[in-house]
Amino acid sequence: MENQPMDVTSDDKLWALLAYVLTPIVPVIILLIENKKNRPFLRAHNGQALIVGIINIVLSIALGWTVVLSCVPLLVWFACIYWGIQAYGGKMVEIPVISNFVRNQGWA
Q1: Peptide bond preceding 73: is omega within 30 degrees of 0, i.e. cis?
Q2: What is the DSSP string of 80-96?
Q3: d(Cα 84, Cα 90) in Å, to the nearest integer?
Q4: What is the pLDDT of residue 64?
Q5: Burial of 21 by CB count in 10 Å (0-12 exposed, 13-18 middle, 19+ buried)?
Q6: N or C terminus of the chain: which is more exposed, having fewer CB within 10 Å?
Q7: What CA dihedral angle connects 65, 71, 74 and 80, to 10 degrees?
């Protein structure tokens, strides 16, 4: 996202990983924890993970009735695992369309 140096702790990295892998449950939990939701690194990843999780649930409901297309939400979840690993490495993840949406809303 932005190239500003951030104070990223190992705890932030772990929460970012969990936000992607266990989306949308963990992003909602992070929003409820006061000292977590204000951390810049975690805030950026949390917004993206929440949006991806909501999109994945909608895809699951919409495409779940077909055998072939029901694999799409699983592929999105595999992408979430990859993004979580990137976040655990301390990198900012750039997800097409979603990253810009999160920044424009002021969530990151």
Answers
A1: no
A2: HHHHHHHHHTTPPP--T
A3: 10
A4: 79
A5: middle
A6: N
A7: -120
Chain segment 53-87, per-residue pLDDT in tens: 999 999 999 887 887 788 888 999 999 999 999 99
* Structure token pair of residue 90: 């301390």
* One-letter amino acid for residue 25 of the chain: I
Q: What angle (nearest 5°) sits at the alpha carbon of residue 51, between those of residues 50 and 54?
A: 85
* 48 touches 38 (CB < 8 A): no
5 — pLDDT class (breaks 50, 70, 90): low
Question: How far is CA 97 from each of CA 44, 66, 101, 102, rounded to the nearest angstrom?
Answer: 14, 26, 6, 9
Token pair, residue 54, equals 């909501």
